[in-house]
Amino acid sequence: MLRKYTIINRDLGQDGYEVFWCLPLTLEFAKGQLDSWPGTSEMAHRYKQFRALVKKAGITEAGARTLKEAPVVHPRLLARELSRAALARYRMGGLEEALELVENAVRLDPKEVSVWEAKAEIERREYQYEPAFEAYKRVIELSPYHLSALREVTHLAKTLELWSTAIEYARRVTQLPGATKKDWHILGHMYYRRAQIEQQRGDHRKAEEAFLMAIDSFKTALINNSLTSMDKKHNATVCDTLARAYTRVRMFDEARDTVINGLVEDPYNSMLLDLQMQLFDRTDR
Description:
Oligomer: single chain
Shape: elongated
Largest sheet: 2 strands, antiparallel
Number of helices: 14
Helix content: over 70%
Order of helices and strands: EEHHHHHHHHHHHHHH
């Protein structure tokens, strides 16, 4: 575009790239025209705001370079821009720059939810489970009904074997309007695992309590009037875990009935067929 104007001089720099420049008189004229333009004062004010904000927040070069393209000069909105840019960089393989952008976003506005979402996602994908766990908890502090973050904390707590925490957040998930039957199944698994741990510790009373809580969760996880093949497979899987929980508290009749119900949903389910044989063997003895 600059090549079209005769008032602009063009040359090649030492590195071989084109360099454009004006004569001093031309430059003074251009500045005079700019000063008389109505939008000049607003642009100058916005630029000063931007520079002051960048300096105050301690934004690094990578962050400032990204924010130059942003159409806003508000800490929260700029933090969102940095969060989006961080995820984009990360997905293109730029881990270090992505983390740098996230840290810049945190400095701009530590109360912006998307900042912690971006941080948590990157750390989780990098198998940094403890930092990701803390970042997702920060998301929930800022947005208590954030369903996906609650699910992520549940999953990470399970990975870190924090079973009480996993149960706490899994229960919170099941109380939200967007909860699914799968969420109830996950809650049942958390109780089941805690029951196993209590058994290993020798506390049979707490183990039985946890198994009964698992049974209640698994029963809630069943889909009534399952119509699709996906629903039927879900029910078969739930029946398998429910039947195993029944056996743990010596409710064998209920376990057998549950296995049969599961096989009605998925007649060739190998886990249910194996469990059925085990229960029949127990009857024979």
